[in-house]
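Question (not urgent): is this output format expected?
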Amino acid sequence: MRHEKATRLLDLARMLAGSAEGLTLDEMAQALGVGRRTAERMRDAVWTAFPQMEAIDDPPTKRFRIPSGLDGVFQTPTAEELAALRTAADNYKASGADARAASLYALEAKLLAALRGSARRRVAPDVEALVQAETIAIHAGPRPFEDEAVLAAIRAAIKGLQALSFRYEGGSTPGRTREVTPLGVLFGRSNYLVAMEGKGGKPRSWRLDRMSDLKVLDKPASPPEDFSLQAFADESFGIYHDEIQDVVLRIKPEGAEDALRWRFHATQQVSQEADGSVRVTFRAGGMRELAWHLFTWGDKIEIVGPKALKDKMIEELQEAGRAHGAW
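Got this back:
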């Protein structure tokens, strides 16, 4: 127990040293999963161990941080942390995300180079043992397009709050040059830039593999203050954004165990019924992608609503049936 408490105090010290603006007591409590009084006692204990910690007025509260960082002895990564980093990099590489994989491999190299020789020799065998004992299942599916130059241009525009132009081989007018305000990137089976085109335009998605001739323009282009990339992503089951619907699904008792462990959507509400079935509700667009997914549940799932989703499921099944000579 003493070891666990010391570890949690060190975790808090790392948080305070890694935050430029500092943390409030409520943010500490939330990050550590403790009550405010416990967070206050832990802050005081860290302050005793690291007297360089400072309090910053941020009415109506205060923020706390360790401005000079921590000594390297407190920052040595564990074998489990390094193995998780390697696994994440390998996962990116296996899925075709070479640019992000390269960034994580470079980070791993920097962390190992920063370790003292004795620490590096001690941790390296454990890292290799863990990596060899854990592997990645390669799932069937498209390998997303991820060009380092494309991502670099998008990121430069986002960081500089500048407009971005590109030639787009998609949409209703293929080959047209677009000028947009970049808002973020959605990574998935295909990767998309989320951006707004023109004044008053709504956020929409642009596939990275259909973009070319990217240029960061010398024009200010700030995202709306109330825009949230996560909220935008949550409006759809997948990537496609269409009318938001109230989705209600019923998973039969024989599929209930799987359904209780499954996340259909970030905003879902799940309840188990008296007959053993599971009811899942959420609001989202993207009925086509949702229908594609629900097909994988076979006869274990029933679409209660909306009608648009039922109709889309029937339409997709009919098209598949005609393609394979079912009728």
